[in-house]
Write a structure and sequence with these properties.
Blueprint: H1 2-85, H2 91-140, H3 146-179, H4 185-229, H5 233-274, H6 280-383, H7 388-411, H8 416-437, H9 442-488, H10 494-539, H11 545-627, H12 630-641
Helix pairs in contact: 1-2, 1-3, 1-4, 1-5, 1-6, 1-9, 1-11, 2-6, 2-11, 4-5, 6-11, 7-8, 8-9, 9-10, 10-11
Length: 642
């Protein structure tokens, strides 16, 4: 009876220890699940913040683009009005208009570059935050206690060995009892009292140990509940460390106690071998009860084995998932490094573009200064023309002819309007010829008239070119609006963008060719003027000195105007090339932003998958708790004690 009770107590101790280990594993799993839930909530907040920042940035960009479009429209309208008013102005004023247009375009490009920089900085900060949070999660998540699994295996092996030894001892005891029934009947009565006292003492010791273990289990459960209630991460980690150290010490104490119990069990077995047998009926009934109890305990142990195997499989699956997550984190880290390198290269390119822009600004200021000097010279030359009386008379005649022309227009719709306009032009030419005749020869007057005719032709060509320029501007604005609309659906309208870019490049090339043709025509005109001036100098060496000085001044001014015009054309071509480069950079930045948006969507999908996995883990933990409720184990323990 005493041996069976000791075996039962030993089995109960082992079962309670296994339940304690299982409870510790379950609590560790719950802690891991709580940590993962906190990380998931953190990632969700980060994603919401990133979405808000992205939406605000997009709204700001749209507002700025609308403002820039309005400014462009205003500037184009103002430029067109200026062109219509200043038809009779000189070439430096036209150069000034072109320079102002390109300045406006450069300012717009600067604003777009600043916006792209801000977006890149925001995305880099978001990627850094995600990387830090992922590394923190990887450091916090650790595998559950493997030592508990080893201890459970070790204890189960000890239980199996103890059962085999008890079976062997029971068989040996039965054989010895059958052989020594008659010889030890007298000794049994004397040894009963001594063995009963020893067994009671051992039973009391084991009961005290079990009570201590139950108290420890309750304390640990309370500490686990306190740790769950505590929200501070630093305090919870320190407490967990202290609790782990205490558990380790307590496990060592329990191992030493188990060894002592083994020694006592061996001693009790030795005593049982020397004890006399009891009647067969009572012993057989008790043995049957003990065998039933042993079978029930074996079934419990088998169930515990199955649960442990399931837990091991789940642990292996978790380890595999953690390895996959680690690989994903590595991949994301490599992608982040690549993006950082790209950002660095783009920042260097932006700095170089800034330096080029500053140089262009300096050249533009220099051109404006030269234009102002030329304007002042032209005004001084215009103010020093003599013979105002003749000019006034001729102007009166011109007015009279204009009035007559209007009267004829109203009265009849005959083709005399063209003749009157020619008469007016001839009169204007005569006025200018008379103005020049006061200074020089009649040959000069004829030459000046011819030059004025050419000037009228050039002005007409200039008006035609300005009309083409306005048409090109309107087409440019339409394409910009189409490009903004196509930015909303970049994947579907990629081919349309390519076609529109090809068309715009072709038209810009055509406009550039037209400008080159106009420049060549102007060069030929200037060369002819220079050649004719040389002829006039050689044919008439004895003209007045004032006329020579005036002609030389005009030649110098023409040369300067030609040089400034050529410089402005070169700068216009360089600015067009720079504008193309800026457009390509803007397109690259847009593509990078789209890639980053796709990466954010992928992160969101991964987080959703992690949340689904966490839910599955919570369900598994709840199933384990249902399979091994601690209250039922405590109830069985109290029933066995009573």
């Amino acid at each position: 009876m005493n041996s069976s009770s000791s075996i039962l107590l030993y089995h109960i101790i082992i079962v309670h220890y296994v339940s304690f280990v299982l409870q510790t594993t379950v609590t560790s799993l719950q802690n891991i699940v709580n940590q993962k839930e906190e990380t998931i909530s953190r990632y969700q907040t980060l994603l919401e913040e990133a979405r808000e920042e992205h939406s605000t940035a997009i709204q700001a960009l749209r507002q700025e683009m609308n403002a820039l479009e309005e400014e462009l429209n205003k500037q184009t309208i103002a430029a067109s009005s200026r062109v219509m008013i200043d038809k009779e102005s000189s070439r430096p004023e036209q150069v000034r208009v072109l320079v102002e247009k390109y300045l406006c375009r450069i300012h717009e490009l600067e604003d777009e570059m600043g916006q792209a920089r801000d977006q890149i900085k925001q995305l880099t900060t978001q990627l850094n935050d995600c990387h830090k949070s992922l590394s923190a999660q990887h450091d916090n998540i650790k595998p559950p206690s493997q030592r508990s699994d080893k201890r459970v295996d070790y204890l189960l092996k000890e239980v199996a060995e103890a059962e085999e030894q008890s079976n062997d001892n029971s068989t040996d005891k039965d054989g010895k009892d059958d052989s020594d029934d008659d010889s030890e009947t007298t000794e049994s009565e004397n040894a009963k009292d001594h063995d009963g006292k020893d067994l009671k003492r051992d039973y009391n010791k084991l009961a005290d140990q079990l009570r201590d273990q139950n108290e420890l289990i309750e304390k640990l459960n309370q500490t686990i509940a306190d740790l769950k209630n505590n929200k501070g991460e630093s305090v919870s980690r320190e407490r967990l460390r202290s609790e782990l150290e205490r558990k380790k010490r307590r496990i060592e104490m329990l191992e030493s106690k188990v060894e002592e119990d083994k020694v006592e069990i061996s001693r009790l077995r030795h005593q049982l071998t020397s004890r006399p047998t009891r009647p067969e009926g009572v012993g057989s009934l008790k043995e049957e009860q003990l065998q039933k109890r042993i079978k029930a305990l074996e079934e419990d142990l088998n169930e515990a084995h199955l649960r442990e195997e399931k837990e091991r499989e789940s642990h292996r699956n978790k380890c595999a998932e953690e390895v996959e997550r680690w690989q994903e984190r590595k991949r994301w880290q490599n992608i982040n490094d690549k993006l950082r390198n790209q950002v660095k290269t783009q920042s260097t390119q932006i700095e170089t573009l800034k330096s080029c822009q500053q140089r262009f600004r300096d050249t533009i200021t220099r051109l404006e200064r030269e234009r102002n000097t030329l304007d002042s010279k032209l005004k001084s030359v215009k103010g020093s023309i003599p013979a105002q009386n003749l000019i006034e008379d001729l102007e009166r005649e011109v007015k009279q002819l204009k009035a007559r022309n209007d009267f004829l227009k109203k009265t009849s719709e005959v083709a005399s309007t063209s003749s009157l306009s020619e008469v007016i032009e001839c009169q204007q030419r005569k006025i200018e010829a008379l103005q020049i005749a006061q200074k020089g020869d009649s040959a000069l007057t004829e030459e000046v008239e011819r030059l004025q005719e050419r000037k009228g032709q050039l002005q007409k060509a200039n008006i035609r070119l300005e009309g083409e320029n306005l048409k090109l501007k309107l087409e440019l604005e339409k394409r910009r609006t189409m490009q903004l609309d196509s930015d909303g659906s970049p994947e579907s309208d990629g081919s349309d963008r390519a076609l529109s870019r090809d068309m715009s490049n072709k038209k810009s090339k055509r406009s550039y060719e037209d400008l080159e043709k106009a420049v060549t025509v102007l060069r030929k005109v200037v060369e002819k003027l220079q050649h004719e001036n040389k002829k006039l100098k050689t044919s008439e060496p004895h003209h007045m000195r004032e006329d020579k000085v005036y002609v030389e001044k005009l030649q110098m001014e023409l040369q300067k105007a030609q040089e400034s015009y050529m410089d402005s054309l070169d700068k216009i071509s360089s600015l067009e090339a720079h504008l193309k480069v800026e457009k390509e950079n803007y397109r690259m930045v847009q593509e990078q932003l789209l890639q980053k948006a796709r990466l954010l969507t992928k992160c969101k999908i991964l987080l959703e998958r992690a949340a689904v996995r966490e839910k599955a883990l919570n369900e598994q933990v709840s199933d384990l708790q249902k399979l091994i409720p601690p209250e039922s184990l405590q109830g069985t323990y109290h029933n066995t004690l009573h």
